[in-house]
Design goal:
- This protein is an all-alpha fold and 100 residues long.
- It has helices at 7-16, 23-44, 75-79.
- The relative contact order is 0.08.
Amino acid sequence: MASSLDRETVLRVARLARLKLADAEIDDYLQKLGTILQYVEQLNEVVTDDVDPMAHAVELKNVFREDVIHPSLPRDLALGNAPKSDGQYFLVPQIIDTTL
């Protein structure tokens, strides 16, 4: 895989990442990406036939609290510190142009 890495491939990856690279940077990235690909090739040599696929290295459990209904904050308290309200809703500046 690393043997197919050339300047054109680095330029293609840079274009996909929307990066503009100088000539010196292209050579630097060619070397760095080559090193990464060599490491990936080394990882591909590890025998994983007896390893079950897993999403995480450690078992996870649900850490969320129970969904329990509680009384809502009264409207007057919720709107109490609002910079602007009409007594029923928060008033905010319009940010979407509706004339389109």
